[in-house]
Amino acid sequence: MTLARPLTLLLLVATTLSTFAVEPVTPLVLPFFDSADLSPRWADDSGEGPAPGSHRIGDFQFTNQQNQTVTRADLLGSIHVADFFFTSCPGICATLTRNLKRVQDATEGRDVALISYSVTPRMDTPEVLAAYALRFGVDNKRWHLTTGDKEATYALARESYFADGLKNQGKGSETFLHTENLFLVDAQGRIRGVYNGTRATDVTRLIEDIAHLRAEMQDTATPR
C-alpha cells in the first residue's frame, strides 16, 4: 500500500509531460515585402494593388569569387540571404560580412544560400572577391560574392530587392548604392524579411526567421 501513492503520482506526471511534448507549435507566418517602402504585407491582406507575395527577384547573371556564373535559377528552390557591399568599403561592409558569417554558421545545409552583390564590380574582380572570401571565412559552396555589369547590379538592387528603399528608387548606377539592409528571400524568390545587418539583434531575428521559412517549406512539401 505504501508504494501505490508514489506510483500513481509518477504515472500522473508522466502523462502530463507526454501531453506537453505533443502540443503542436504554431509556426510564425512571415510577411512579404512587395514595394520600395519596405512595408510588410501578409497573405490575407485585402485592398488595392497586387496580392502580397506577387513580387519576385528578377533574373540576373553575374560571376562569383570562384569565377563561376551565378543566376537567379541557382537560388530558386533554396532560401537565400542577400546584401550589397564592396570590398574596399571602410565602414559598414565588414560588419555586414561578419554578421552574414554568423548566419552562415547558424544555418548549415544546402537549402540556405547567401549572396553578396558588389556595387563596385569594376574593382571587385573574382580574384579580389576570392581574397575577401578567404579573409572572412566564406563557405564557397553556399555563399556567392558576385561581380558583373554595374547597371544590371544596380537595377537588380533597386527594382528587385528595393535595396535602399524609396530614397533612390528609379535612379541608376550614377547614384551610389550603400545600404546596411539584409534581405531574406524564400525558395520562390519572394522577399520575406528585411533586417539591419549591423545590429546583432536583427541578425539573431534573421536566423530565427530562416528557421520559420524552413518549417514553411517542409509544411508546403508535406502531402495533405
Automatic annotation (TrEMBL):
Disulfide bonds join 89-93. Residues 1-21 form the signal peptide. Gene3D superfamilies: Glutaredoxin. CDD domains: SCO. SUPFAM superfamilies: Thioredoxin-like. Cu cation binds at residues 89, 93, 178. Pfam families: SCO1-SenC. The keyword Chaperone does not apply. Transmembrane segments: none annotated. GO terms for molecular function: metal ion binding. Keywords: Copper, Disulfide bond, Metal-binding, Signal. InterPro entries: SCO1/SenC, Thioredoxin-like_sf, Thioredoxin_domain. Residues 51-215 form the Thioredoxin domain. Belongs to the SCO1/2 family. This is SCO family protein.
